[in-house]
Specification:
This protein is of the alpha/beta class. Helices cover 42% and strands 15% of the residues. The strands form five sheets. It has a seven-stranded mixed β-sheet, sandwiched between helices. Strands 8-9-14-11-10 form a five-stranded mixed β-sheet. Helix 1 (20-29) runs parallel beside helix 2 (46-55), helix 23 (568-577) packs across helix 29 and helix 30 (712-721) packs antiparallel against helix 31 (729-738). The longest helix is centred in the last third of the chain and has 20 residues, at 691-710. The mean pLDDT is 91.
Length: 975
């Protein structure tokens, strides 16, 4: 079996060039039957490599190029035992600061094959490992190798396809070493002849080394992979009681609390159906482990497809009743599903690290680790890195990179970044002198290349044996162990991921309820039913949901206003249909909701899509339609649903498309209906929700909305304490003022670390003061608690002994204004400076106080918002004739001029590929939406910026009783 024994992919970070898929394709084209991926100290690319080998019908060889203090070596693992050794060696390389290859190979040597040209290293490990002298070039091996009869193996490096690859390699090495190309040390580069070559060519170069050629051919068979990857590795729940019996007992105990007792027959039937499947698939430990983790926090949101499980609901892992809301369990688990279940659980964002610490303590850091993310170079990073190589300053680089939209990094966008930059509306006309064209040319080549390893937002893996037996482990910046694979690869290779995620809105709900309890006493959450509250439903129906979880984006608030439906069932539909690819169907949905007659797309889908007005809304609708129209099995229908959710359409997608067409034809479905249904299915590409996930989110939305409707001050204080959501702090402050609330600046005698509310007043927390240290905040609060309120600036400084820089920030924020009746900041600064310079506290000279403009400027710089007024009211040349946002509806069909403060925007592409933008503006009275169609956007994108004042001119139009401004032109004001 001809084998390419050492290749480097782009996962040899900032060294290799090509993806594992390209390497496998190239190896097959060169006539090899097997290929080894030997990236540097890692197995990052292993899942993709195995997938690519299968696709290209080529055998995989598992290995790595290990580097240590004592040299380097190629290490191969053909068996499961050897693979476990390899994973532990790589783990040791990343986690042991005194790592040496010899020590690691002596400890983890089972089944391992080692090839190196480091004679000392081979001598040190020869008693423990099967060793080979690596011949990279046709040069006679050292005498000691021949004297000791160490077998020689021909293993040249394969990295480059052409000279351009080598030049790119030089660029990446310079970036990695933070140096310039001219100063790059050649010893840090691969040989410039490390090209992919046919075996016949290699053989001819080494033809005088006949024995080595023979040894190499024997070596091929020894190292070819025999490992059956993909076997599920379940976490283990340790209990004296049988886990099957324990799961059953806990499920029925929980069900008796969730439902009326005795349990209805349909509840028992659903529980038994699910338990039977869970136990048959041996998922009982998994459910018990997740249950154990969830019990560590009183407020969680179990979401994803797992929210369709009544077992999960009974255990308290999820909180939405799957029977009441008709949730499809088979979307989560079905008899034909081969991969393990995936339950996502949200915790309050500031509690998640404690939850992770519990997991590592309970299950052991040797048995638990977080999933990785493979960080890649985006357009901004690529330009920044290459720009530095050319000696560009950070300011020069930022002038260009800050203009680049995020979606340039998406695979479907043009790779000619320079042309794209010149055509993009916000950068059109920007002059880019040399060396920028060359910088762009090189930057394009590293976009998408791996740049490092990060931590997945919540994925945790727990294993019965030490986790380094299954996968290499590293340590994250926070000190958590992380595996080397991303989430998809983790699941493909059999490890079971549990997602433990942080959610700001759970913290908002927690803090708002605590504020209500502090101010007003009891709050009975057990009897809390926000879904049935008419005031909450009305708030959601009117789109007055800024700050409310998942329904505060402009698109979602517009949809709510268009439908005028705020009930739970419709909000579940809206939170799922509001996805970019479904815009056409959203419009049709609103028309049907408002009474426009329609025929079902096919009679067989009448019941399936009855609750969504004949439109596919949820992921499982794809599966249901495939079953109903094309007679798919449950397993095939679920696979189709998975394939549809991927952005990139591979061969499987086309195979299932043909299968769907054939199935529909066999059932007499017309081509017209097939095309229409398939188009609707395609809207699920990339980003979509299943119904249980939407329902779980909507429950959190309703709790948030209820608090806003009934306790707006407590709610907005909690939103601000948890650093908002979709909008800036200023936008939430403006919303609070529009709700009739008073926002009090920081106060040394009243503020806590977080915001809090009293009646209709929100008191700003010390957390909002930019740069104020956490230690200073704690000291202020503790001293106030111990010694009572502060009487003056000097009293405060003497008692707290905080740093001068912290005191300065508090003065700028106005925190001393209530203890200095004059409110003279100049006097406060004098007293503060005098205290720190001389420790004196005598009087200050007559000093002029701050002007109102200076006062507001200090406040904005220190807090990021104004409490006395809206920033727009300070714009000196605001046009008197401009209308107010609250009055826009009176001008439907008319041209207007209106002053607006830009608070958020979203750029989209038309079918023709042109860019346009939806922008949300506000004034002191309300928010309003504006649309910049392509021609207008091209003209004004370069001046449009966030958190800035504009005059907006255009026509007010209406759709479904909702008004927007179609912009003709804008002008920046207040400069």
């Amino acid at each position: 079996m001809t084998t390419l024994l050492s290749t480097k992919s782009c996962y040899s970070i900032l060294r290799g060039i090509h993806k594992p898929d390209s390497i496998c394709k190239l190896a097959a084209a060169l006539g090899y039957e097997a290929v080894a991926l030997t990236d540097c100290n890692n197995l990052y690319g292993l899942p993709q490599f195995l997938r690519s080998c299968k696709k290209n019908k080529i055998a995989p060889v598992i290995g790595t190029h290990i580097y240590g203090q004592d040299g380097d070596a190629l290490v191969y693992a053909p068996t499961q035992t050897a693979f476990s050794s390899l994973c532990q060696i790589i783990t040791d390389a990343h986690c042991n600061t005194s790592f040496t290859i010899a020590a690691a190979l002596k400890r983890y040597s089972d089944g391992i094959y080692v090839a190196s040209d480091n004679v000392a290293l081979l001598s040190a490990i020869k008693e423990k490992c099967q060793i080979f002298y690596r011949m990279k070039r046709p040069v006679v091996p050292p005498q000691i190798i021949r004297s000791n009869n160490i077998s020689c193996c021909i293993i040249p490096e394969a990295v480059f396809v052409d000279k351009d690859d080598y030049e790119l390699h030089r660029v990446m090495r310079a970036i990695d070493n933070n140096t310039t190309l001219s100063r790059l040390d050649d010893s840090d580069l691969y040989d410039n002849n490390a090209y992919f070559s046919r075996w016949e060519r290699i053989q001819s170069e080494f033809e005088v080394f006949e024995k080595a050629i023979g040894t190499t051919m024997e070596f091929w068979d020894k190292v070819t992979c025999e490992i059956p990857f993909g076997t599920t590795v379940m976490p283990r729940f340790y209990s004296e009681e049988n886990t099957v019996d324990l799961l059953r007992k806990k499920t029925y105990q929980g069900a008796s609390q969730r439902y009326s007792v005795p349990l209805e027959e349909r509840v028992v039937k659903r529980i038994e159906y699910e338990l039977d499947l869970i136990i048959k698939k041996r998922f009982d430990d998994y459910f018990l482990v997740v249950d154990d983790i969830v019990r560590q926090s009183p407020r969680t949101c179990g979401r994803g497809s797992g929210a369709s499980s009544i077992v999960a609901y009974s255990l308290g892992i999820t909180n939405v009743d799957p029977i009441r809301y008709n949730l499809m369990f088979e979307r989560f688990l079905n008899p034909g599903r081969k991969d393990p279940p995936d339950i996502d659980v949200d915790f309050a964002w500031d509690e998640r690290d404690a939850i992770l610490e519990y997991v590592f303590k309970k299950y052991g850091r040797d048995h638990a680790a977080m999933v990785a993310t493979h960080q890649t170079c985006g357009a901004r990073m690529a330009l920044r890195e290459v720009g530095r190589l050319f000696g560009m300053t950070e300011d020069e680089i930022s002038r260009v990179t800050k203009k680049i939209p995020w979606f340039v990094d998406l695979p479907e966008n043009p790779q000619n970044l320079y042309d794209y930059f010149q055509k993009w509306p916000s950068t059109k006309g920007m002059v880019l002198d040399a060396p920028w064209p060359e910088i762009f040319s090189l930057a394009v080549k590293i976009i998408g290349k791996p740049r490092g390893i990060g931590t997945h937002c919540g994925g945790v893996v727990i294993t019965p044996e030490p986790i380094s037996h299954y996968v290499p482990v590293q340590i994250s910046a926070k000190g958590f162990p992380i595996i080397q694979w991303e989430k998809d690869g983790t699941e493909e290779l059999g490890l079971v991921k549990i997602d433990l995620l942080g959610n700001r809105s759970l913290a908002v709900i927690r803090d708002a309820i605590n504020n209500v309890k502090t101010e007003q006493g009891g709050f009975d959450e057990l009897r809390w039913d926000p879904q049935s509250d008419l005031k909450t439903i009305d708030l959601l129906a009117k789109g007055k949901s800024m700050g409310v979880f998942y329904v505060e984006s402009p698109a979602m608030r517009l949809l709510q206003r268009k439908t005028q439906r705020g009930d739970f069932e419709h909000l579940v539909i809206h939170s799922s249909i509001i996805r970019p690819a479904a815009n056409k169907f959203i419009q049709e949905y609103v028309r049907r909701l408002k009474g426009e007659p329609f025929k079902p797309i096919h009679p067989a889908l009448l019941d399936t899509l009855s609750e969504t007005y004949g439109i596919m809304v949820y992921q499982e609708d794809v599966s249901k339609a495939a079953i109903a129209l094309a007679s798919f099995s449950v397993e095939d229908a679920d696979m189709l649903r998975k394939i549809m959710s991927k952005r990139e359409k591979h061969q499987k997608f086309h195979d299932f498309h043909r299968m769907f067409i054939e199935g529909c034809h066999n059932n007499g479905v017309s081509d017209e209906v097939i095309d229409a249904v398939w188009e609707m299915m395609l809207s699920f590409s990339g980003y979509s929700f299943c119904k249980p996930h939407s329902a779980s989110y909507v429950q959190v939305s309703f709790q948030s909305a209820w608090l806003k409707a009934h306790y707006p001050a407590s709610f907005m204080a909690a939103v601000l304490s948890n650093y908002g959501g979709f909008y800036s702090t200023q936008a939430y402050i403006s919303e609070a003022m529009r709700l009739g609330l008073t926002v009090t600046p920081p106060d040394i005698n009243r503020s806590e670390k977080r915001y809090y509310a009293r009646s209709s007043e929100i008191v700003t927390g010390f957390c909002q003061v930019k740069g104020l240290t956490s230690a200073a905040q704690d000291r202020i609060i503790q001293e106030r608690k111990n010694g009572g309120q502060f009487s003056s600036v000097v009293d405060f400084l003497q008692r707290t002994a905080i740093d001068e820089s912290d005191a300065e920030k508090l003065i700028c924020a106005g925190a001393f204004d209530t203890v200095d009746i004059s409110g003279n900041r100049s006097k406060q600064f004098w007293q503060m400076r005098q205290f720190y310079r001389t420790l004196a506290s005598d009087g200050s000279p007559a000093l002029e106080g701050l002007s109102m403009k200076q006062y507001l400027l200090y406040q904005y710089q220190t807090l990021g918002f104004l409490t006395a007024c809206h920033p727009l009211t300070l714009v000196v040349n605001r046009k008197k004739a401009a209308i107010r946002a609250i009055d826009i509806r009176k001008y439907i069909g008319k041209k207007i001029g209106i002053a607006g403060w830009c608070i958020t925007s979203k750029t989209v592409s038309t079918k023709a590929g042109d860019s346009m933008e939806f922008v949300t503006f506000e004034d002191e009275t309300a928010t309003f939406e504006a649309v910049f169609f392509p021609d207008i956007y091209r003209n004004f994108a370069s001046i449009l910026s966030w958190q800035a004042p504009f005059m907006i001119y255009g026509k007010v139009t209406e759709e479904f009783d909702v008004e927007v401004v179609e912009v003709d032109r804008i002008e920046r004001i207040g400069r």
